[in-house]
Predict the structure.
Amino acid sequence: MSTDDVEYDEFCDPNNPRKIKYEDIVAASKRILGAVIRTPCTKANMSEKLGMELYLKMEFLQYTGCFKERGVRSTLTTLSDEQKKYGVITSSTGNHGIAVSYHSTQLGVPCIVVMPVNAPITKVNKCGRHGAKIIQFGTTLAEAKRHAMTISKEKKMMFINGFDHPHVIEGQGTVGLEIMEQVPAVDAIIVPTGGGSLLCGICIAAKHIKPDTEVYGVETDKTCSMTEALRKNERIYFAIDSTIADGLGVNMVGVNTFYNIKGHVDKMVVVKEDWVARGIMHIIEEERLVVEGAGATTLSAVMAGLFPNLKGKKVVCVLSGGNIDPTILARALERGMAAEGRLVKFKVTVTDRPGGMAELCTMMAGIGVTMRDCVPDRAWVKGDVFSVQLKVIAETRGWDHTKELIEQIKKNYKEYFFLEVGERQDKTAATRRGPCLAPNPVCMQK
Ligand SMILES: Cc1ncc(COP(=O)(O)O)c(C=O)c1O
């Protein structure tokens, strides 16, 4: 790419990747001191169940709900007076933009954030509330970025790459410094990965302080741009469709992050999006914490059984963000319940004489199953004209309870249809990939 190209960024130049050093991260920690929260890193309630001493680094407790403040503050505090006058511009699907909006307003620096048109509403609104001018452009982060860089050159505003600017990576690395102070004997750290700044910064900080610390990056099956880049040993364009982990939706990983991560990260792990929905649900139920999809990927990957090598070890999962749309949260909870057999869908034909439907309700109530929804169909039913097919959605306590419900329906009714419980369980098990044991391969085997 020539230096005249609109997308040329001297800080993220493929011909001149920047080496990030431990000392740079320590310097960033001094620049952000007092402006960013030192978040807790506490033992998870799920430790015993998951068979490891598990700690949660609670970055969703940052004021704007995400660790991204660290990199942003670290960068803004290095601006010259001239750069402060012209202001800054960035592209973001949400959390980085919110952090730029909040901290540049705090520091009196003008700021524009370009977001794709499909960015989550909560994030777009939050970004605007903190003071930035918002421009919605394109359907991918790549399109939004190109637009932001065009404006940056026209208006002399500094473009801050949200995952690849060296000062951003250094700022994110302060999460690693804190983890090493909070859990000094940590064996492994699991990090959600989009463009790679958090993974890169944590890797450099943790491995400098305790070289045998294992550091794993997690992506979902819809956002695995780092896994694919490491597999192919080059930064490739990875097409991203809609994902529950929108914070990880980066089409191409960073120049500097890729350069610094290669050969250092112990492994990239890919978790299925269904597991992320379950993760969000369990983090609410068992830890009483609300995190967004990207933030839940780490614990979801542990729940999915992707880290059998870490049984009995001291492990930190970074819960990186908490900005989740209520509508996405509702969908995630429903998906999570369905994936665990706690929400079950079936059809059953009952008599349409008085009491027919009541009998079904009584039977379900008798075994403690809640009827969530029931749609009667009389027109497309064959045979007996006094029968009705009911499409039912019911809530149960889980697979065993669902099996009990199915047994009762089989016993009491002649016509029914439901997804075999065994089939569902097998499908769930098939999402497991592993084991994750080798010391330094670039990614999980497919
Ligand atoms: C909540 C959350 N977690 C993780 C990430 C991934 O961070 P990175 O792009 O530094 O890999 C992001 C990125 O925006 C995020 O918003």
About this structure: The first strand starts at residue 41 and ends at 43. The longest helix spans residues 166-182. Residues 295 and 320 are 4 Å apart (CA to CA). Residues 66, 68, 95-96, 163, 172, 192-199, 247-248, 250, 292, 294-295, 320-321 surround pyridoxal-5'-phosphate (CB under 6 Å).
